Amino acid sequence: MMARTSARKAPGKRVAVLGAGSWGTTFAKILADGGADVVIWARRPELAREIQEAKRNSDYLAGVNLPLGLRATSRLDLALAGAEQVYVSVPSQALRENLKVAGPHIHAEAIVVSLMKGVEKATGMRMSEVISETLRLDESQIAVISGPNLALEIAKEQPTAAVVSSTSLEAAQSVASVARNRYFHSFVNTDVIGTEFGGVLKNLIAVAIGIVDGAGYGENTKASIITRGLVEMTDFAVAYGAHPETLSGLAGLGDLIATSQSPLSRNNTAGRLLGQGYHLSDVVNQMQQTTEGLASVAPILELARAKGVEMPIVEQVRQVLAGTLDPKDIAPHLTTDDEPQGERTMDGQAQGGSAVRRALKRAFDQLRNSGRSAPGDRP
Predict the structure, then answer these.
(1) 142-146 and 160-165 as β-strands: parallel, antiparallel, unpaired?
(2) Burial 239-269 (b: 16+ CB within 10 A, else e)
(3) Per residue in 324-360, is it b (16+ CB within 10 Å) or e — as a string?
(4) Where does NAD(+) bind (predicted)?
């Protein structure tokens, strides 16, 4: 069961946020409202100037007043000077290049926190893996944050929660103690794989939901896809070493519900445009910010094939993106199988499969976990 971290926030801790899009700016607000000393880096000098002087980001958070103490700059060296924690919110496909430039200015003992929800196309690596490789950091200095976090709602201070994950519980608690305030609550766990993949995979299911919504299907269809999509997410993540309960928490189910149902979700919006008949190139041109779900479909399917994981919903999304499947034909493929199958539980066990197979599965799980259940989110 998820438990709220007991750590107190550390007032005045010097932190940097790299990236001044909607989520980066929102998270800088979260941190500043929690008492941290925050400098946000914006690539464009004019945007940095607006945040610094007017306390607004009219490009991405129109109408939102930013904290008076929040500072901004377009110089990486100034943003990172003295930062004990560095929060990174840049497009996933640009992460490696940004880190190469920022790396020399990041303190050797700083904790680097990924706010991103994507995988690198060229390598299939999770964002924490790209951070570790590029900055040559031990995984204990890296944390990731995920959950049902629609930026505009949080910027308007609507209450929500998120998960901070690191292989080092101490690092996770250190970040969680800073990344919390009266409207934003942080929990912790040590399942980085599950937390990151939850954030990536829900984007793909959200695109599918948008497609069927745009094509005119109703709530039954969307509920079926959300539910079956969670099975695909869990099967995939567990195949790569995640704990299944992570996918039933904030980083999985919670984020999936928010992203699949809200018009504020870029992935849902992109899917809806596709469902209405727009070509992929037109959809990309209409989106003001990167839509991570569109970029992640191909690398996720490649990773799924490597582990023998079936992802029929994501595969149908790929076909719509490629123009080989009419969006109006997507729902029957997503909600039916070639032959009757048992509904799968959260740990991937098939109900109605052979008794031998289920017994072997239980025996394997017991050996793997030494008779103990896998740890979930913890205080």
Answers:
(1) antiparallel
(2) bbebbbbbbbbbbbbbbbebbbebeebbbbb
(3) ebebeebbeebbeeeeeeeebebbeeeeeeeeeeeee
(4) 19-24, 151, 266
Distance CA 220, CA 200 (A): 24
pTM of the model: 0.84
d(CA 377, CA 359): 28
Nearest to 48 by CA among 29, 30, 21, 67: 21
Per CATH, the number for 197-336 is 1.10.1040.10
202 flagged as catalytic: yes
- Cβ-in-10-Å burial (0-12, 13-18, 19+) of 44 comes to exposed
Alpha-carbon span 210 to 201, nearest angstrom = 15
Q: Is 117 annotated as a binding residue?
A: yes
**pLDDT for the residue numbered 339:** 66
Assigned CATH topology for domain 14-190: Rossmann fold (3.40.50)
Q: What is the pLDDT of residue 7?
A: 46
The span from the first CA to the last CA of the chain, in angstroms, equals 10
CA distances from 33 to 9, 37, 162, 299 (A): 11, 10, 16, 37
Q: Where are the domains of the chain?
A: 14-190, 197-336
User: Which of 13, 29, 202, 222 does the annotation list as catalytic?
Assistant: 202
Phi, psi of 38 (to 5 degrees): -115, 135
User: Exposed/middle/buried for 74, CB within 10 Å: 0-12, 13-18, 19+?
Assistant: middle
Structure tokens at 20: 């001044």
Any known ligand binding at 24? yes
Q: Is 189 annotated as a binding residue?
A: no
- 363 token code pair: 């025996």
Q: Is 20 annotated as a binding residue?
A: yes
Say what percent of the chain tops pLDDT 90. 69
DSSP letter string, 175-194? HHHHS--SSEEEEEES-HHH
Ordered alpha helix ranges (H), the chain:
22-33, 45-54, 76-80, 95-102, 127-135, 151-155, 169-178, 192-214, 219-239, 244-247, 255-261, 266-275, 280-286, 292-307, 312-322, 330-335, 355-369
Q: Cα–Cα distance between 144 and 126 in angstroms, integer?
A: 10
